[in-house]
Description:
Elements: E1 4-7, H1 11-23, E2 31-34, H2 40-47, E3 51-52, E4 64-67, H3 74-81, E5 90-93, H4 100-106, E6 112-116, E7 126-131, H5 135-145, E8 149-153, H6 159-168, H7 170-187, H8 192-213, H9 217-223, H10 230-238, H11 244-263
Parallel strand pairs: 1-2, 1-4, 2-3, 4-5, 5-6, 7-8
Antiparallel strand pairs: 6-7
NADP nicotinamide-adenine-dinucleotide phosphate binds near residues 7, 12, 34, 36 and 73.
Amino acid sequence: xxxxxxxxxxxxxxxxxxxxxxxxxxxxxxxxxxxxxxxxxxxxxxxxxxxxxxxxxxxxxxxxxxxxxxxxxxxxxxxxxxxxxxxxxxxxxxxxxxxxxxxxxxxxxxxxxxxxxxxxxxxxxxxxxxxxxxxxxxxxxxxxxxxxxxxxxxxxxxxxxxxxxxxxxxxxxxxxxxxxxxxxxxxxxxxxxxxxxxxxxxxxxxxxxxxxxxxxxxxxxxxxxxxxxxxxxxxxxxxxxxxxxxxxxxxxxxxxxxxxxxxx
Length: 264
Ligand SMILES: NC(=O)c1ccc[n+]([C@@H]2O[C@H](COP(=O)([O-])OP(=O)(O)OC[C@H]3O[C@@H](n4cnc5c(N)ncnc54)[C@H](OP(=O)(O)O)[C@@H]3O)[C@@H](O)[C@H]2O)c1
């Protein structure tokens, strides 16, 4: 499955390259990176032996191609590189919204898998939702993303929209939650530094406890919510009529709609 060609190594493509290096999943020399403005991660990969912006004629060596440009730029990238690739190269697309049939068409009928990753791939704690019609392409996607964290197989390509809304886009939801908690802490009288330390450490500690205990989040919530106590007072707001459940449904529905638009 190597050499692996990364078409675009920005935020997400760079996180994948970083995670592979951290996991020791692939040797630097297994990677080829094409990006007009190489990031520090791409430059570090090049120092470790990756080929950075090789001549187009060398792209035929790639066995696996990760399409990691913005959804708005994928057609341009396909037009630029498809004709240089080997006919048996497998295309693994991480572009939100763009369907595998359209990708296969623009990449000359090559086999396609779709993956919706998260940026924590950089520290091998990512989450990747995978879909491919073709079993060989699916197992290729597994081999690429298993070193980077949790892998979830989807049974239907249409579910990628939901996986994007619930996973690919979701780190930003949590960061927004932490920002809001910090701001609320300052409004409640804490210094900016204390509000920031308390909010970040509490959230990462609670997430680690969830991961390590394997308990249901609802059970962990109940464990820290005494009847008529302070947490319950906050929960009455957060889980109330206009609280998190309807807000999260609305946010996920908005991301889902946008994912469908990007693929249209
Ligand atoms: N960021 C996330 O959290 C996340 C999560 C899941 C999936 N994704 C998916 O990952 C893909 C990349 O997103 P991103 O956030 O990493 O975007 P990004 O930071 O803009 O990275 C894309 C990179 O591709 C480069 N590029 C543009 N056109 C190219 C071309 N024709 N050939 C080679 N490289 C080209 C860009 O260079 P320029 O800056 O010069 O254009 C940029 O460095 C998107 O399709 C997105 O849907 C992202």
